[in-house]
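User: I'm putting together a small comparison set for a docking exercise, and I want a reference complex before I start. The sequence is below, and the ligand is uridine-5'-diphosphate-xylopyranose. Could you produce the 3D structure with the ligand included, as structure tokens?
Assistant: Of course. I'll restate your input first, then give the structure tokens for the complex.
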Amino acid sequence: MPSLEQRTPKSIIRFSEDVNIGLGRLGFMSLKISVIGLGYLGATHCVAMSKLGHTVIGIEPNQAKIDSLKSGHAGFFEPGLDEELAKQIASGRLTFQSSHDEGSRDVDVHFICVGTPQKDGSLAADTSYLHSAIKDLAPYLSKDAVVAGKSTVPVGTAALLTIELTNLAGFAPNLAWNPEFLREGTALEDSLNPDRLVVGVTNQHSEDKLREVFAPMISSGIPFIVTDLATAELVKAAANAFLATKISFINAMAEIAEVSGADATQLATAIGYDERIGNKFLRNGVGFGGGCLPKDIRALMARAEELGVGQSVAYLKEIDKINIRRRDRVIDMLTQELGTLKGKKVLVLGAAFKPDSDDVRDSPALEIASLIQGAGATAVVHDPIALSGVNKKHPELTTQQDLMKAFDGVDAVVLATEWQEYRQLDPATVSGVANKLIIDGRNVLDIAKWQQAGFKVLALGKTIKN
Ligand code: UDX
């Protein structure tokens, strides 16, 4: 396996070029693929597979989603994805349908991309969509086809699904697990140029087929790790647990910095220069959110408990708590500054859990807005693209699409999601603010500039002289 240094530059499979142009010439096989479940993961995977030159059928029971995809809209905001989607549909390789039909019988690889959300009232993952997907697929499954799960699952799920599918199909299926590490905002780029490909298999045939699927990527130098089912499942849970731990670690240091006069951002830079630590995922602020990290660490705790080794990841409870405390900290800072939040008006900049996404699932920004409102203030929320999600989830919150109007008459501003629009905002152009107080929840603002414009600036993890 090539080392990272030996790898060909990641630019080998760029957005702009389709590998299929000359697939045969390059010695790659074009396969027939189905992608089951067309949410964030599935829709992106369809486009990525078609871009590699495979024939792809996207399958999803929700007809509205199918109609949207057919018209070239993924149904969520992901930079560059809709353009690529339209291009791949136009190539004739990518089609969508609401259920399996005879065409599923000669599919080489079925990728299962359904969601595994947190169960209501439990830390565990809800795997019911996986079981339905397997049930729907079974009547159309051929003996040679490989079924590759991509969803994030509790370790041991693939073994259970193998038994289930054997009973339903009447033969032992080629079940494999191929976790996906894509990030929202860079989903397609991450799918086509991942740091590594991981496949968990139980036989040579599955490995060979998956090697064919990813051949252009493997030949570009992307490491291809072949392992067993359990390891492949656990790799994803472990990676997300590690990332969450890194973020909460620096946020724990931020708590210490706040009471000792230290600066957590400088601290992160300083420790990040140590190559063993690295500077990525060490940005302190209001913490992690989204549809993955929070639910995945909880699911890992629940699964470890079921397996009788709950103690091994009991520390993740602290990771989760540190993360949640950062949201509360913003409310404490506001209360300290404003005396009380009752009757006040606070602008929250950002609603999405991170920039370049319209995803508001477990968003720190949105929870902060909710807490502000709950404390008796009016929370005004601005976000460049995620406001429809806010209105759906929290109709009690006031939303404002016009950034300049959003500042009107507010007693304080909280920057909760670091959109470029906020980072670039010239504070001198901001007017109508009743009380010039801004809390930088992501440590991205030019403090001196905001102070020059008359603002009192506070930030998480550091004490600022105003
Ligand atoms: C994550 C994993 O990165 C990805 O590999 C996996 O497939 C899905 O889960 P994603 O949820 O898209 O991806 O977002 P990510 O970029 O990881 O950010 C997660 C959260 O952590 C965001 O709320 C972000 O604001 C926060 N974050 C990230 C920090 O607070 N500090 C950091 O230094 C980095």
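The first helix runs from residue 40 to 51. Residues 1-16 have pLDDT under 50 and may be disordered.
User: Thanks, that's exactly what I needed.
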